[in-house]
Automatic annotation (TrEMBL):
Record-stated family: Belongs to the class-III pyridoxal-phosphate-dependent aminotransferase family.
Protein name: 4-aminobutyrate aminotransferase
Keyword Coiled coil: no
Species this chain originates from: Sugiyamaella lignohabitans
Keywords: Aminotransferase, Pyridoxal phosphate, Transferase
GO cellular component: mitochondrion
GO biological-process terms attached to the record: gamma-aminobutyric acid catabolic process
Catalysed transformations (reactions): 4-aminobutanoate + 2-oxoglutarate = succinate semialdehyde + L-glutamate
Pfam family, one: Aminotran_3
Amino acid sequence: MIRSVTRSSLLRNRVAGARLTRLSSSVAASYFPNEPTAPSVKTAIPGPQTKAALEKLNKSMDIPAAYFVADYYKSLGNYIVDVDGNVLLDVYAQIASIALGYNNPALIEAAKSDAMINSLVNRPATGNFPSNDYADILEKGIMAAAPKGFSNVWTALSGSDANETAFKAAFIYQASKKRGSGGFTQEELTTTMSNQAPGSPAGSILSFESSFHGRLFGSLSATRSKPIHKLDIPAFDWPKAPFPRLQYPLEANVEANKQEEKRCLEEFEKILTTWKTPVAAVIVEPILSEGGDFHASRDFFQGIRDITKKHDVVMIVDEVQTGVGGTGKLWAHEHWNLDSVPDIVTFSKKAQAAGYYFSNPELRPKLAYRQFNTWCGDPSKAIIASAIFNEIKKNNLVERTAQVGDYLFGKLEALATKYPQNIANLRGKGQGTFIAWDCSSPEFRDNFIKKAKELGVNIGGCGVQAIRLRPALTFEEKHADILLDVVEKIVASA
């Protein structure tokens, strides 16, 4: 049905857009009236207090990856403060895990609630003894934010756990289909206790080159981003498929990128159908974040969906890092407009809770203890998730992130034209603040991150030589301008 656009409808749209801008532009200020107006760096980073704190912490905990020791009591909004008093604009946000900025008052209120106290001091073994308010907590938060087409959830403890339990669901589902209505045989019950078939059948999970899905055993076997994650750890013999390496700018490389995605889809289907063990599920990130922020088109992901449906393989979309608004959609896979929704979507990080949504009710095991652990998630985290999702909806933060992302990307495009060597392959257009680019070398990238801290910006890298942006949803144009100034100072001095 074609609808005509009238003057009144255009006026309504302009008014609505203006209202969104007015409302959203004041969100950061209303949350954080005392937020710093600029970074302030007093010492080297790490400074003397951080070094002393790390030395103390190192006596009991292995912490070689620590950049600095934060003072979260003093951190506020989009700024993180370290123990030396350095105030940094944070566009890394706890590896994409802070949704609403530091010390957000709405989350503090949720943390003070009776429901939170109850969930913390009486932490339930949810699988056996769920709390009388857990259904309401889920309904008002995690389920209220479920992607379109998803009416079931399994709550977990972390992103890795979400993916691991999603793998289990896929394996159980595939085995149950093969078994039919009959129960387990005695042979199955006996052989599984020796890790042998038929009780423990052969099967696999297919993932993609440069992907990251976690550091537990199953999720680590599907992770392909960096060797250091996997070295010395026994792994399942699971397949990996190529993920497109697009050329940028996209509009100048349409045909080449189309052919690259076609090549990858053909190889993907070949691997899927010829692998030595049956593939129960395919797992893919909307953006391959840890591996280097690699993107693909809607057509590529539609191709994955078509092939998984053709071969009756479960499609898992790993939204642990891309979910909850950072890409300008609540869930990044919504950008794809798939003809049919994925089977499973995993989540964590910005949700401050973890688990997976599933669209097919047959993915729910029919017997107790097939998906199970002591806690089966955490009601306290689900309470925070509820507050996060409510604030996002109330303040139009997903739409606002899309606006800010467009502003930031446009400014970065201008810098990339001016400094093409060290802002190369700029990507993330139309993907909110989920923006990345490549530096000229791994050494320059690492130095960029160091220099950015010295200039008051906490920023992250990924892959071999990429810089990635992962700010909170309260990140606005005024914060973007500070970031842009720092980026230009670093690349101009190279």
